[in-house]
Known about the structure:
A: alpha/beta; Rossmann fold; 2 domains; six-stranded mixed beta sheet; 24% strand; globular; disordered C terminus; B: mainly alpha; 77% helix; transmembrane (chain B); T7SS_ABC-Transporter (chain B)
Amino acid sequence: MKGDTFMGKDALMSDDHPAVETSGLIKRFGDVRALDGVDLTVPRGAVYGILGPNGAGKTTCVRVLATLLRPDGGQARVFGHDVRREADAVRTRVSLTGQYASLDEDLTGVENLVLLGRLLGHGKRAARERAGRLLEAFGLTEAAGRQVKNYSGGMRRRIDIAASIFNTPDLLFLDEPTTGLDPRSRSQVWDIVRLVVAQGTTVLLTTQYLEEADRLADRIAVIDRGRVIAEGTPGELKSSVGAGSVHVRLRDAARREEARGLLARVLGADVVLEAEPVALTARLTGASDLNAAGASSDLNAAGAASRALAELADAGIIVDDFSLGQPSLDEVFLTLTGHPAEDAGGDTEQEAA
Amino acid sequence: MTTATRGAAREAAGGAAPSPELIAAVLAPGARPPRPGALSASLTFGWRAMLKFKHVPEQLFDVTAFPIMLTLMFTYLFGGALAGSTGEYLQFLLPGIMVMSVVMTTMYTGVSVNTDIAKGVFDRFRSIPMWRPAPMVGYLLGDMFRYTMASLVILTLGLILGFRPDGGAAGTAAGILVLVAFSFAFSWVWTMVGLLMRTDKAVIGVSMLVVFPLTFLSNILVKPETMPGWLQAFVDVNPIAHLVALVRGLMDGSVEGDAVVWVTGWGVGLIAVFGPLTMWLYNRK
């Protein structure tokens, strides 16, 4: 046991197990199969995203990997340690920031961190010293003496992440780290995730937002009804779904057919006529030549749109309004599963809590 | 995310944004300390309980106002009828009412456990590699403080009202010590209930069903000789009745060996049964 607790970065780089490896992982809650045979391999040193709607099994999956739930079947290994038989070895290497602040709300920020530090085996002084540094790093020094129940959503999330890196973990689980946060707090969390990864920690995050997975993750697994239904880099995933869409509203409804032909030709995309007589939408496919350069799909969609608008102007078709759309999670799901993303089992995730 | 928006975000937050440089610095790998021992981890959780008393002093209400109310109520309600005078009755009642108050207070252990689980802080504790029962023992350490406090509040009130223990200071102290120690053992029932029930209301409901019969169907308020035979049979095996007999004996200076055996047996038995049950549930949550 002692060897585990003293394990430093050098020791863990020498073994070559992936951060996470599961096969056929099953977890049941009553009749519901929250995990129905999950196969995952999370490589080290990167951000891995698990994307899915509520009730898909994301939280259950993370909780099993963090040793908070026992799986009912299949295998799960974290850095080569079995989550059932070697739970303590797993616990020394990972930490989890759950959907709900895993802190004592009655205690102050600094008390929470010192408490945690003491439980991790730090002496009083060392625990206090590191708590102070963490609070400062996360912009919480002023709030250190306030009870956590009085923190804003963004502050909670930050101190929760600070708590999770009290001992720098080798693998950090973030369960929907930005759900319910305002845009500013969300971007702060994204920055923190990037910093954590840059320091060598593997991050496994769950999210309902394709945008978030796209921006942060090096690889994404899409999960639905307890199964992985797609896996790959964000680029691969999006090219299978389409790189997004260009919505256009014309001044003159009479020229819509003409515009449709033109957009289809220029973008090499399916163009759909909307219910509104002046509106049409081009669904960009990731495989189109516009994406061949491998640049990010945001740029591609924008490039495609500007090209299309220029052609429309050349043809004398006046555009009143246009917008770019990323493929939404709904579109991803529709494409991958043939059914829309639905809140299938909100209760499932609740039971896991 | 560009540098420009990041800068703007920090500005908007009035400097309260995370600092990339400092975060990178705190993330630098350092030697991890060895895990804390069982005692150290338990004491840390005990410290947490004390911090909670500091921040939410209302939770000490039930170990201050409630015992005072019970003592005054029963002394003046039953004193005249049962013992001829309230002063006489108090001599008999006080050790028992102390036991009743503390035993009723033990129910809140289950409530604390249940509330913590609902709030998610348990996830954090459960993912720390440490001696597994430490959080539970920590609750109980904090609760022992509450039990001691309730005992002292009642003792003080009793002394003011005229309670004069024949066992003297040593006997009285020993009585309180036994009471607190037994309550520690008894509270393992509540840690289990706290883990078992879905809501804190359910915890209270179940606890009442257990605590009320155990405390009222005992030798606390009246002498069992006045009860029908079947009820006496229950009192004879009721652990709380034996606890009362022992605490009363210690405070009176006349301990019966019987009571010592019963209380020790029940105490050890409760921990042996409900301790592992609690931990089994805790590990499976």
